[in-house]
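Thread: "does anyone have the structure for this chain?"

Original post by V.I.:
We have the sequence but no experimental structure in hand. Need at least a predicted one for the grant figures.
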Amino acid sequence: MSLFDLITKLPGVGEKRALVVKQLGIRTIEDLLTYYPYRYDDLASRLPSQTDDGQKVTFKGTISSPALLLRFGYKKSRVSFHLLVGHDNIAVSFFNQPWIKEQIELGQEMAVFGVFDAVHASLSGQKIIHADNDSLAAIYPASQSIHEKTIQQLVAHAYQQYADEIVEIVPADLRQTFRLLPRVQQIHDMHFPDSAQAAKLARRSAAFEEFFLFQMRIQLLKISSAKHQGRQINYDAVVIENFIAQLPYRLTHAQEKVIQEVLSDLKRPLHMNRLLQGDVGSGKTVVAAVAMLASISAGFQAAIMVPTEILAQQHANNLSNLYENAGLHLRVELLTSGLKAAARRQVLQDLENGEIDVIVGTHALIQPDVRFHHLGLAVIDEQHRFGVKQRATLRKQAENPDILAMTATPIPRTLAITAYGEMTISTIDELPQGRQKIITKWVKSNQTDHVFDWIKVQLAKGAQAYVVTPLIEESESLDVQNAELIYDRLKSELLPYRVSLLHGRLTNDEKQQVIDDFSNNKTQVLVTTTVIEVGVDIKNATIMVILDADRFGIAQLHQLRGRVGRGDKQSYAILVSDPKTQYGIDRMEAIAATTDGFVLAEKDLELRGPGDVIGIKQAGMPEFNVGDPIHDLKMMETAQQSAIEITSREHWDTDKNNAGLVKYLSLTMYRYKDFD
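Reply from O.Q.:
Generated one for you, tokens below.
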């Protein structure tokens, strides 16, 4: 017997039920025993006088009236009776459970669990407790396909049969240092606690174990990545120095520091897997330009993959201009799905022959027919837009180039040690000189007319403005502004100034023409959807109006705001919204209060909660079942440090004190093969 036996080893679990529980992530006995409850119902009986209004409670008493069954509507019913609890006669109702009536006998003693209404001295019943049970009842995440009670039964059977197979995973010295429960007790008390205190201690141990195993996997992935022999890119330092000297601006100290970190990585024979984070407008593109030039100067090619065609076109233009202005005649080409067939064939041929120095593309870069001559560095911009498998495809396709991922969404510390734990992180934490802080205001929708009047005044002073809406066309289901309606309105209201419209349904050529016209000040106002969220860089645009701003998240609002403030002129962001929830109000207040993306990232995480922090879509790892990486950040950091210390010891994997840990990891790491 082994905890890694399939769930079908349990009596009564056939292939059909195994498929159902597999949807909950349960394949083995180990999965089932660590499928922990998310809360507990306290089944200890109380008196009404000891119970608060709205509290879940168990009342034990004598049935003092016959059960009455009322049916109303299709499949709707109510069973009602009275329960004498001490001196209180409590009205009990069970909704849509007509079979309960058969269990009610006058004068019978019964315990009922439900929600107490103190005002009406009534109980909305949830279940009848037949046993004299004064313990906590574990409540599990269930689904439409499997009832919670079935999960409870499966867990009980599994523990009964496999308890003797539970061995320690966390090494003894860590368990002693952090006062963790033995694993068999931890699992028992998570599922069958005798008290609230027992459940609390078990959850503490289970959370540390979960974080520790996660961090051990991260360290193993780092070790595995280091074994992949990277390219030693012996770049020409003189070429790099000359390029930086020819830039039309001085680099910030943060940019200089990050460039040195990247160049140092490139020269090492180990594979680079670095994440560059920097707030909107902090100058990540020039860092990428230096890194790519370093690769080219050593005889390699460079690639940059971006999420949208607009951004790809802009990167191609910017890189060409940067290199050309520095006297470097490099060939920068664009590869997107919008490329004509003949042009695409030529680009692919030249790329394979080594005639292209830098290729800029979207997902088109990771199609099977794309072959590189000698790719040294792959830059992935706005990397959170790409899934782990897409990044892995690029690496395999180009024979494991160094990777520089970039994000303008600042990463809270919580995510830095979880979602990006296997990457080395560089941070640009200052803006270029001369940039002014964007003034941000939140106004209600009844002030929209005043906003547009103010825009017209600013246009007369030579400004340009974005007006962002959530929808393209009018929608019956959502009462929000739409781009076409606003475009039609502003065309007449803002005369003699020209207004243009940009959205995702335009062809690539049409989008580019709209962007070019706005960039060249042929149009002064751009009404747009979030297609301009990333990468559009027009220095004369100083006004950003976001309609129905509560429809957007904090990170998206911050990205949109980052489209202005790109030059040395004072810029403004106006959020127009009437949020209906406190969450919506909190978002508006947070954006209006600060332009610091790092502060906003922490606030966003605080408001949203961890959610699927490490979702399979982005990072290839499961979300946490027990620990909360936000509220338990100290524990996560402790687990990380413990994992680093263990894996840094020589022969740690043959140390008998780590035997249980090593065996467990060897049996589970296969699930994370796509993460590396």
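V.I.: this helps a lot. DSSP finds 21 helices and 21 strands in the chain.
O.Q.: and Residues 320 and 332 are 6 Å apart (CA to CA).
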